[in-house]
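FOLDING PROBLEM:
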Amino acid sequence: MPKLNDYDVLDVVCLCHAALAQDSPEMPTFYINQIMNLMFGYLTKEQRQEVEVYLAEKKYLPPVKLLDNTGGTLDTSPVIVTNK
């Protein structure tokens, strides 16, 4: 991965502060998109593919807990089935 430029790091920090400021002229998503555009250029081809998988598989979502009829948590661990 290429070395981050100092001015890009400064821009990202300033954009983060702008996104959190109450008097910013834009919505926070505007600043987040600016940050993403700056940082995406530093990713390798493989890292960009990892981002695609991360989004496609919705890995940003927490694990789902399935409940049984009594309110208890069901065991969702994988089961290996073999044909003998």
